[in-house]
Amino acid sequence: MVIVGAGPTGLTAAIMLARRGVECLVLERFVEPYPLPRAVHFDDEVFRILAGLGLAGGLREISRPAPGMRLVDRRLRVLAEFTRDPLGPHGFPQANMFDQPDLERLLRDRLGRLPRATIRGGIEVYDVAQPPSGPVSVRYRSVVSGAEGEVRADAVLGCDGANSVVRAALGAGWEELGSEQRWLVVDAVSPEPLAAYDGVQQVCDHTRAATFMMVTPGRYRWEFRLHGGDPLDVRARIRPWLGGTDPGALTILRQAPYTFRGAVADRWRDRRVFLLGDAAHLTPPFIGQGMCAGIRDAANLTWKLAMVLDGRAEDRLLTTYETERRPYAKAMIRMAMLIGWVMTGGSRRTAPLRRSLLRTVTRLPGVERRATTVAWPALRRGPLVGPGGGRLCPPALDPRLGDGFALVGSGTPEALLIRPDRIVAAAGRHAVPERLTAAGIRFSGL
């Protein structure tokens, strides 16, 4: 197995596969984790996924729970506030701020302790070729010496970002979901804490849209929307958040223009080559789900791929990856674009209407809960979900279930906790409930 790209998505996928016994080679252009911050937020579901890889303690050390988001006007007056639960339904804080280089170091360290995984830095992949039969060929060159090489693999995961070489090799294009926006991203370090809200502030103004957040203690990020050839004095723009802190005392780590866009690849798989993360989808940052979506891609695909490579499942199982993930990614991107427009779109004439609407809507019962769960689709009724809807498996069970899967039942004589290799615990008859076999769900190797 070859994984192209050692960002959070590629490293997570490699850890998941190596834990399931799959030999993994990760190829990455940079020798060390990219030193500048990019992603800065993950939610409680992603925390739970990564905690399941043995990273809970490390994640708590490198991240901090965020209290929520405030929508403010251009004078930083609060229009609405959405709080985040310090203990969400997955058993972890609902919003977590972090510095991406810290996370990548944590993931690399975990991967380095797995005997079936290898990471090679300083390697640039330039071609991926898939013959009608046989393994996939990955061609690469050394960034330092220029020496070229080739490796063959049973499967290739393209986790190599928005300018993905793997996506180009697949011949996949983009399905654009909305217009592009240019923003300036500013990351800075302050020698003293700023007297500002320690959650996320979104300036809701069509001409001066901006985002501010404390990432980790002493580290801050601003994002400013750009209009045409706007000249931008960064230190003047960040001054409203500084209080009594001298703007000259801040160290600017980065100030770089970015284009925020919404798009999904028009196909995510060709036989044994797959796209994950930014190689498969791009989202504006308004609901903080860019990196999270890539981690979810890895969680969805890796167990299926491990079973197919091990001969325990047919190749058709792999078709469910795109079937399940692509519609979800599109819905998430469209939600981010809608929320972004509500917060920063419109015109001078509609600005008073936006302020009034935000104040009114956020006072309605249930709006805050709904606004903080827009990234998670509801479980629809089906063979495993009854009329009352689904609910999450308690996080306390995660250590017992490990990397396998289980059928958990309660409240009936045939309540079961089953793993593919053995029955772990059972109350009543050791049998799969008839309602599942009647629905065409078959279990082998129990």
UniProtKB/TrEMBL annotation:
The keyword S-adenosyl-L-methionine does not apply. One of its GO terms (biological process) is 3-(3-hydroxy)phenylpropionate catabolic process. Residues 2-335 form the FAD-binding domain. This is 3-(3-hydroxy-phenyl)propionate hydroxylase. Pfam families: FAD_binding_3. It comes from Actinoplanes regularis. GO terms for molecular function: 3-(3-hydroxyphenyl)propionate hydroxylase activity; FAD binding. The keyword ATP-binding does not apply.
